[in-house]
Write a structure and sequence with these properties.
- This protein has eleven helices and 17 strands.
- By secondary structure, it is of the alpha+beta class.
- A six-stranded mixed sheet has the order 2-1-3-4-5-6.
- It starts with a helix and ends in a 20-residue tail after the last strand.
């Protein structure tokens, strides 16, 4: 026994040594594990823009606000609490995002971001408080504000369950099906900051049902006829599928809808024209997904080339071949539509490419001449809303002025919105025939302008912004051009120096326009003209003569 114990004692160090060798990998193995871990932790899909079915509705509102020349307005957003505690969502941040998307080209709203709760202040808010106390920052007062809350959240308002099972001596089978529905409501209001009063009628109250459900199949069997000394054998098999509609997406949809309602009522525009978009329909998305999965990568690239070519974004061949140039064109197109600019035809991009060619019929069926097997793309009737801009368009307008008419001493603020990304140049001629380049300028030096993203020239929201004021009566004009390549080195240096100085020897916009048009790669051009009227002089009123009383005789 002692020898046996001794042998075991001598064997243990060897076992431990072998175990250590097996557990401790070599340098190359450890490196492989680390690199593989980094690879495996990467998400399996590319990100997509977080947006509800109201994305197109928000873009439609943006274009409508721009068309109506709604002036820039400062707005504040209060915290949007959830008394029910059922939905852990950043509702306030969703609302700010919706307001921002309605202001991309119109520049209609700017959110004043300030937190008064000391427990919620971050680094920026803390620094803001210090700078305010020292007089180094000026906090602009908002004109209106939004308040509200997730008014209620009712769980399991609707519940449906079904189950059926069959059992025999040797088998058990069962099937179950259930659907549960919860309701979430959102109430928002618009108020006047000067009086802290809520505008009557400028409110939004909507609710949405969020459903969860599942299906399951169970099959079981037992073996019989075995000898008594052998235990019975059994097999159990279960298949289940659960679907859970996201509460976050439901809240975002309610927030976007409420933002459209509030802004539309406040600006007095027909906002309802932007809500009923066919692309919101679930059947539309299901069919798009089915088509997307049926097509090969080559088919998707071919589709992208054809659509981008029709929109003037792609000038290369339509051959279904991937290339760096195509990826750059796709990224530009995606950024212009506020998609994630991945440069590939993902499902988000595929849906955007087909939105003008596929729609829903009155019977909630897909109505389209397009199919994955067809090579023909035909715009469906009424595919574009009335306020949809041209794909290569460049909008230039006087901010806050519906009529092209100003008075002496008025400020000139231009709202410029390109439909595509490119290099932007703008020139201004005053009533004295002095021509100057106003964009880019020393305070706005970014030559590249993003598609479907408006900008103000000058940017009066900046404290150190320059001003353009009308000085004499007459005709004034502005000319803007969007090019695919920078004009630097291809036109006279005075046209690209961006110094807000008069162009020597140039007295007409047409001279600048001829220089730009002679260059290759001009995407879009736009000219705006207005009249400057002198002050209206009113003749002094002639006082009425008081009748004189005569003397009695």
């Amino acid at each position: 026994m002692q020898i046996s114990y001794l042998r075991h004692a001598l064997l243990w160090p060897c076992v431990l040594a072998l175990s250590a060798c097996a557990i401790d990998p070599g340098l190359s193995d450890r490196k492989d594990i680390i690199e593989k871990g980094i690879t495996e932790q990467t998400p399996l899909v590319t990100p997509t823009k977080s947006a509800s079915a109201m994305r197109e509705g928000l873009a439609c509102m943006d274009r409508m606000l721009a068309a109506e020349q709604v002036p820039a307005t400062l707005i504040a957003v209060k915290s949007i609490p959830d008394p029910s505690g059922l939905f852990s969502t950043g509702t306030k941040e969703m609302l700010i995002t919706a307001i921002s998307r309605m202001s991309r080209t119109s520049q209609a709203f700017r959110v004043v971001d300030y937190e008064v709760d000391a427990l919620k202040q971050d680094t920026v808010q803390t620094m803001t408080s210090l700078l305010l106390n020292n007089g180094q920052i000026e906090l602009r007062k908002p004109q209106i504000y939004i308040s509200g809350a997730i008014s209620f959240g009712d769980k399991t308002v609707v519940s449906k369950r079904r189950s059926i099972g069959v059992s025999t001596a040797n088998t058990d089978t069962g099937y179950s099906w259930d659907v549960l529905g919860s309701v979430v409501g959102l109430d928002l209001h618009l108020g006047d900051m000067n009086s802290r009063t809520l505008y009557p009628g400028l409110d939004s109250a909507n609710e949405l049902v969020v459903a969860t459900g599942g299906k399951g199949v169970e099959i079981g069997g037992r073996a019989t006829g075995l000898p008594k000394h052998i235990y019975r054998m059994g097999v159990q098999y279960e298949v289940a599928a659960d679907n859970n509609q996201g509460a976050g997406a439901a809240v975002r949809l309610l927030v976007d809808l409420a933002a459209i309602e509030l802004v539309g009522k406040w600006a007095k525009i027909p906002y309802w024209q932007c809500i009923d978009y066919e692309q919101n329909h679930p059947e539309f998305k299901r069919q798009m997904r089915a088509w997307y999965e049926e097509q090969t990568a080559t088919d998707r690239i071919n589709l992208a080339q054809r659509v981008l070519q029709a929109q003037g974004v792609w000038s290369g061949p339509v051959d279904g071949n991937d290339s760096t140039a195509l990826r750059n064109a796709l990224a530009t197109y995606q950024a212009s539509l506020d998609m994630t600019p991945v440069g590939t035809v993902n499902f988000e991009t595929y849906t955007g490419l087909l939105r003008n060619y596929v729609g829903m019929s009155a019977e909630d069926k897909l109505a389209s001449s397009y199919s994955p097997q067809s090579n023909e793309l035909k715009l469906r009737e009424h595919a574009l809303p009335m306020n949809e801009p041209a794909h290569n368009g460049l909008t230039v307008a006087l901010l806050g002025q519906k009529e092209p008419r100003l008075q002496i001493g008025n400020s000139v603020v231009l709202r410029i919105a390109p439909a595509r990304s490119g290099f932007l140049y703008c020139y201004y001629k005053d009533a004295a025939n002095v021509v100057s380049q106003i964009y880019p300028n020393p305070q706005q030096q970014a030559v590249v302008a993003q598609g479907n993203m408006g900008l103000m020239v000058p940017d009066v929201s900046q404290s150190n912004s320059f001003l353009i004021e009308t000085a004499r009566a007459g005709t004034e004009q502005v000319y803007c051009a969007m090019t695919a390549k920078p004009l630097t080195g291809r036109v006279p240096a005075a046209l690209t120096n961006a110094k807000l100085e008069p162009l020597v020897g140039v007295t007409t916009i047409e001279t600048v326009q001829q220089q730009v048009q002679a260059q290759e790669g001009v995407i879009a051009q736009s000219t705006l003209q207005w009249e400057v009227e002198g002050p209206v002089v009113l003749a002094p009123a002639v006082p009425e003569k008081t009748p004189r009383r005569g003397k009695r005789s």
